């Protein structure tokens, strides 16, 4: 726990033990999950908790999600290590490996553990056939394979014309296999983009060819599809970023979508300094004080995962005298700290600062910081480092 700072600290007092923390609101992740379900009520929900739940801590996030999931909802991760780790917290629910097993050993483990997996390349069918010949069978008795096809993104996925044959070859091994047709949208974050309707059309055509007329065993939509393209929902949706309260849509922020921030990234002012007109602040001397002013130093930097590319002018919220004050970065972010313009703010060393999220009645969506850094909230969340303490509530 943090100790409260006395009110009467000298203005240049530096806290020796200042650190940064990510305050994680588990009720917000549950709210966001319900929001995804409300938007796609007829679909099963496959909650994406890859990359340590987008930097939020997969064990606690998955446990909180599990409380609000339906019996047939599932989790998705990318690597086998992530799946094995998640299995320690999630005993019964299916876990999908979105990249599938990558070699014979992984295939053996995937079958042994009964993980669901994505088959995106024909060589993975070879791995499955070899395992089958060795007598390996899936735990639970039934194969669960999601066949990923390329409908226009041209990243992972088999060419559409190859899918019917592979589909049949899996059925030949295991007549009772539960097969799902999967694809991924490249531009669903942009409502003007014509690739999405084309991908949807390709996907529907293939689903028809496979006899999947009710769309039950089809999955296309991630968060952007869930939020904005209802025609892409089909039987299973795969929300990721929206669960963490950020928007996947260009120019929009989590609160615009009815989402709540899950990560509230906080730190403290560790020094408040006076600078004179003409003085420069920070590495590269990129900021010059236009007049005598107060500069606050906050104990967070890119060594904690705060983006180094955040420019002068990027907002933060300072909690001083029981009020939330808007302040902005002045000068470059360094590894362990950053500097802000405190003009007109009665802040003292020890005061708490919000870098993104919400606190003290103020809201500062991670999407906004990301846009100023020419990136997306996904990356900001994933970049939080081990130096940051996680506090769950
Ligand atoms: C990461 C991922 C998702 C989730 O995407 P969001 O944009 O975060 O909702 C869904 N499907 C696949 C295949 C993914 O890799």
Automatic annotation (TrEMBL):
Catalytic activity: L-alanine = D-alanine
GO CC terms of this entry: cytosol
Active site: 50, 283
MF GO annotations: alanine racemase activity; pyridoxal phosphate binding
GO terms of biological process kind: D-alanine biosynthetic process
Plastid listed as a keyword: no
Residue span, Alanine racemase C-terminal domain: 262-393
Cofactor names: pyridoxal 5'-phosphate
SUPFAM superfamilies: Alanine racemase C-terminal domain-like (SSF50621), PLP-binding barrel (SSF51419)
Leading EC class: isomerase
Domain of life of the native organism: Bacteria
Protein residues bound to substrate: 155, 335
Residues modified to N6-(pyridoxal phosphate)lysine: 50
Listed pathway(s): Amino-acid biosynthesis; D-alanine biosynthesis; D-alanine from L-alanine: step 1/1
EC numbers: 5.1.1.1
Keywords: Isomerase, Pyridoxal phosphate
The keyword Isomerase is annotated on this UniProt entry: yes
Pfam families cross-referenced by the UniProt entry: Ala_racemase_C, Ala_racemase_N
Membership in a protein family: Belongs to the alanine racemase family.
Function according to Swiss-Prot or TrEMBL: Catalyzes the interconversion of L-alanine and D-alanine. May also act on other amino acids.
PANTHER family: ALANINE RACEMASE, ALANINE RACEMASE, CATABOLIC-RELATED
Protein name in the entry: Alanine racemase
């Amino acid at each position: 726990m943090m100790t409260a700072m006395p009110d009467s600290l000298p203005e240049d007092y530096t806290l020796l033990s200042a650190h940064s923390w990510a305050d994680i609101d588990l009720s917000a992740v549950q709210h966001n999950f319900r929001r995804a379900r409300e938007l796609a009520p007829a679909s099963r929900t496959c909650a994406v908790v890859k990359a340590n739940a987008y930097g939020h801590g997969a064990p606690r996030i998955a446990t909180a999600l599990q409380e609000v999931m339906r019996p047939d909802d599932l989790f998705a991760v990318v690597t086998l290590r992530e799946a094995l780790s998640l299995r320690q917290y999630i005993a019964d629910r299916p876990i999908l490996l979105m990249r599938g097993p990558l070699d014979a050993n992984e295939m053996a483990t995937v079958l042994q553990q009964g993980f669901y997996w994505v088959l995106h390349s024909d060589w993975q069918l070879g791995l499955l056939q070899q395992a089958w010949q060795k007598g390996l069978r899936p735990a639970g008795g039934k194969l669960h394979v999601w066949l990923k096809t390329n409908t226009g993104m041209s990243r992972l996925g088999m060419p559409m014309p190859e899918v019917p044959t592979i589909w049949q070859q899996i059925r030949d091994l295991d007549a009772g296999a539960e097969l799902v047709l999967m694809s991924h949208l490249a531009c669903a974050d942009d409502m003007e983009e014509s690739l999405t309707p084309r991908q949807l059309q390709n996907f529907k055509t293939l689903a028809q060819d496979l006899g999947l007329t009710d769309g039950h065993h089809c999955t296309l939509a991630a968060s952007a599809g869930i939020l904005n393209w209802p025609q892409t929902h089909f039987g299973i949706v795969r929300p990721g970023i929206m669960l963490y309260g950020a928007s996947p849509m260009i120019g929009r922020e989590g609160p615009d979508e009815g989402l709540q921030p899950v990560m509230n990234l906080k730190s403290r002012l560790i020094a408040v300094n006076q600078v004179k007109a003409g003085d420069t602040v920070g590495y590269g001397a990129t900021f010059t004080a236009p007049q005598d002013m107060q500069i606050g130093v906050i104990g967070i930097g890119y060594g904690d995962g705060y983006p180094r590319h955040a420019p002068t002018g990027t907002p933060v919220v300072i909690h001083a005298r029981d009020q939330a004050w808007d302040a902005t970065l002045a000068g470059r972010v360094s590894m362990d700290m950053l500097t802000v313009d405190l003009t007109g703010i009665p802040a003292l060393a020890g005061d708490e600062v919000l870098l993104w999220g919400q606190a003290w009645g103020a809201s500062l969506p991670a999407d906004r910081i990301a846009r100023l850094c020419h990136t997306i909230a996904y990356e900001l969340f994933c970049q939080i480092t081990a130096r940051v303490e996680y506090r769950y509530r």
